[in-house]
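For anyone still unconvinced, we reproduce a single protein record, the chain in one-letter code, the fold tokenised, and leave readers to judge:
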Amino acid sequence: MKTVLAGVLALAATVAATSGGATTITDPAGDFLSTYTGPQGGDLDVLSFTVFIDKSNDFVISATMNGAIGTTANTEYVFGVNTGGAGAPFTPFETHVLFNSVIVLNPDATGIVVDNIASPTITPLGSVKVSGDTISAIVPISLLPSTGLTPGQYGFNLWPRLTPMPFENIADFAPNDGTFAAVPEPANWALMILGFAGLGSAMRSRRRTALA
């Protein structure tokens, strides 16, 4: 058992060193905002959203929708980023969606990073990928400099929307009325390690039963 646990801990350390941690949130299907007035296409309905920091010190973002990307015309995917000290621009109906920068991905596999929306610096992204119902991108952390938080503490929220911008064109928020960080808390890593340990123990038990 000690050998198995040592291997599990080594694996967990390797995963942590490789990815810097990852967070995935899920969002209920069909939970369009009551303020949204556009077509309720599946590609505007978030099912899951993942952010992690890779070994190159880049953010890797990925969102899975409830339909193929690009099905609805004039759609874009806006990822709000709070690098520290952001206000709440969606008052009064989403008061905890905080951001001061955004990442915008398009169904045609183009995108931009807008750092500091109050005095924006706009940089094109060349690493956007679209595959069926999923859209993803690699975003260098250097394009989103800190304004108080460490990159692992940055808050993220995704809202698919129709263009142009009016609030009634925002279809969904993920997470709902909040943000999440790219790197799990230490307690979550502990749960992951315990999960790996349990898996290793179960595999060893099955191996012993088979030998018997």
About this structure: The radius of gyration is 20 Å. Residues 186-211 form the longest helix (26 residues).
